Every structure is written in structure tokens, then in C-alpha cells.
Amino acid sequence: MRRCLAMLPFALLAACSPAAPPPDQKPPKPQATPDNAVLGSPGWYAWVDGRLHISDDGHGPDQGSDEWNRAVQHKLGQEAPQSPMGSPQWQQAVDALLRTRPAL
Fold first, then answer.
1. Are 31 and 51 contacting, i.e. CB atoms less than 8 angstroms apart?
2. Which residues form the domain of 48?
3. Which of 21, 66, 72, 103 has the most CB atoms around its CB within 10 Å?
4. Which one, of 1, 102, 94, 103, lies nearest residue 39 by Cα?
5. Which whole number is the average pLDDT over 52-69?
6. Is residue 86, in this structure, part of any structural domain at all?
7. Residue 82's closest CA among 99, 97, 65?
8. Confidence of residue 37 (pLDDT cuts 50, 70, 90)
9. Does any domain span residue 52?
10. Contact by Cβ (8 Å): 60, 53
């Protein structure tokens, strides 16, 4: 009986510990971020597009166009940068904002 009581804390600890995913199951792939993508580059535009869902399966405004910039501005709502849309300052503000907020 004492042996069972002595092992009870270990059993509870093992039962409450999170299980590791099975080795054949891969963890979910995080959304790629352009850690070294230059602002205004195709990789950066694709990342912003993916975060804000501007294009729908490749259908939508051309990335970086005035229409695309307006769509980004609209999706960001009140948080949207006040710099002229498409300017380097605007891109930098969009980048900083998207890096600090959860994906939509």
C-alpha cells in the first residue's frame, strides 16, 4: 500500500504532462515570414498578401499596385499607416504592424 501511495505523485505528473506529437506526425508549419526579404520585394509582397488574404487563389490585384495597396490599407483598418500608400515609410509601417499582430 505504501508503495502505491509513494508512486501516486509520479503517476499524476505523467498523466498531466503534455504528450509529444508522434514521430510520424509533423508539427504545423508556421506561416513563413520574410526575415531577410527586402521591403517591396516579391517575397515581402507575398508575405503581406498571405497575412492579410488580399488575393484569393491568385485572383486579385497585382501585388504592389495602387489597388493592392488600398486593399492592404482597408484590411488594416484603423491601424493602417498614415504615410502615402506604397511609399517606403508605408511599407515599413505595414511590415512592423504585421510582425506584431496575430495573423488574420
1. yes
2. 36-104
3. 72
4. 94
5. 89
6. yes
7. 97
8. confident
9. yes
10. no
DSSP letter for 102, please: -
User: Any idea which residue has 491568385 for its cell?
Assistant: 58
Q: Is residue 62 assigned to a domain?
A: yes
**69 burial class (0-12, 13-18, 19+ CB within 10 angstroms)?**
buried
Predicted confidence (pLDDT) at residue 10 exceeds the cutoff of 70: no
Residue 8 lies in a domain: no
| Average model confidence (pLDDT) across the chain | 80
Here the contacts of 66-75 (C-beta below 8 Å, separation 24 or greater) are 72/48, 75/104
DSSP E strands, 16-66: none
CA distance 75 to 53: 9
In this model, does residue 53 exceed pLDDT 80?
yes
Give the length of the chain: 104
Closest CA to 62 of 76, 83, 50, 45: 45
Task: Count structural domains, the chain.
Answer: 1
